[in-house]
Amino acid sequence: MTARKIAVLGAGSWGTALAMVLAENGHDVRLWTHHQDQADEMIATGKNARYLPDLQLPKNISITSDLALALEGAELINFVVPTKAMRQVASQVLAVFQEAGVTNLPILMHASKGLEQGSHLRISQILEDVFSPLGEAKVVVLSGPSHAEEVAQHDITAITAAGTDQVACDFVQEVFMNDYFRVYTNPDIIGVELGGSLKNIIALGAGALVGAGFGDNAKAALLTRGLAEITRLGVTMGANPLTFMGLSGVGDLVVTATSVHSRNWRAGQQIGQGQSVEEVEAHMGMVVEGLATAVSAYELAQEKGVEMPITQAIYLVIKEGLSIKEVVTALMTRERKGELQFEDNLADLF
Question: What are the binding positions for sn-glycerol 3-phosphate in this chain (predicted)?
């Protein structure tokens, strides 16, 4: 494999794990953090003490807080920052490019999962918007069932690279694939991004059920009906419904909504046990994307006229302070419906 110059922006657990995959594949990787103290510590110790404390970083990862240095000569830029920081970081990258006189954009990819507050834009749309002064951006999303801790420990992982430019998707697939990290391509970037974002809402709910004392029956019902409403909104937004049966749909939903490794599941569990959203966010130490995504998805569903009762329930817990048992009762006593009421009409969408 030809060694490529790749910038990874964001030194959290996922950004670090992906940088490790790329470095182990022989690429020239520059891992950027905007915290100078974190960069200094990682350089000195060879570890990311806050996010992956037990793992030694490959020596061919260059760690820096200098964004221009991280971007220099990069053929691929991987944004792995929280959704709320995406536009700001992308704008900083644009400013570096404009100052350097860059006219040809490298491939842009992201491995984050969320919707922008207010605009409800997917992350690829944020990147396209920010970089529009330099022309049309080739954006790829890397998404699927993947705990950063397990990827960093070389556990078997299968994930999806999605985008409208097949050459760019193939590039991302090539640089990341190895014997423990398998990448499939998918042209349905809408479905892959929405699947990765919306499953965090259901993971919050799954954790909340456990925290409130409900069992496996409730969890199975939540995941199944949660997938139905994810698909419902996704198809309305232009996604292929089959995407939600794949890695970035049911695969990501299962891994995020059933595991203590998931910060969204853990946040939901704490909410189910009676902690406030503010307390959960203060104690988590990392961004819980599902909290903000639940608000954006609820607003988007209202705008599009899409029925998403589970998302609405989580929204009411987050924004209105309702208890988990209150919203569960409301969900269970809704009007009677047929299970395939929506799904039977999928054939009409092709």
Answer: 113, 144, 146, 199, 252, 262-264
29 is in which domain, residue-wise?
5-187
Whether residue 134 sits in one domain with residue 262:
no
- The answer to whether the CB of 345 falls within 8 A of the CB of 235 is no
Nearest to 196 by CA among 151, 149, 225, 239: 239
Integer Cα distance of 200 and 226 in angstroms: 10
225 and 306 part of one domain? yes
Is 263 one of the annotated binding-site residues?
yes
Q: Is 234 annotated as a binding residue?
A: no
Is residue 51 a known part of a binding site? yes
Q: What is the pLDDT of residue 287?
A: 86
| Domain end residue (candidates: 138, 153, 187) | 187
CATH number of residue 92's parent domain = 3.40.50.720
296 is in an annotated binding site: no
Percent of the chain with pLDDT over 70: 97
Residue 327 one-letter amino acid: V
Q: Are residues 59 and 172 in the same domain?
A: yes
Same domain as 196, residue 133: no
Active site residue 325: no
Please indicate if the annotation marks 113 as binding a ligand: yes
Residues 225 and 321 in one domain: yes
Q: How confident is the model over 57-104, as pLDDT tens digits?
A: 999 999 999 999 999 999 999 999 999 999 999 999 999 999 999 989
Token code pair at residue 173 = 């697939």
**Looking at 5, 199, 325, 337, which residue is catalytic?**
199
Total domains, the chain:
2
- Side-chain-facing half-sphere of 224: CA atoms under 13 Å: 9
Where does residue 156 rank: exposed (0-12), middle (13-18), buried (19+ CB within 10 A)? Answer: exposed
Structure-token match 């807080």, residue found: 65
Burial of 324 (0-12, 13-18, 19+ CB in 10 A): buried
| Cβ–Cβ under 8 Å, residues 164 and 192 | no
Q: What is the CATH number of the domain that holds 293?
A: 1.10.1040.10
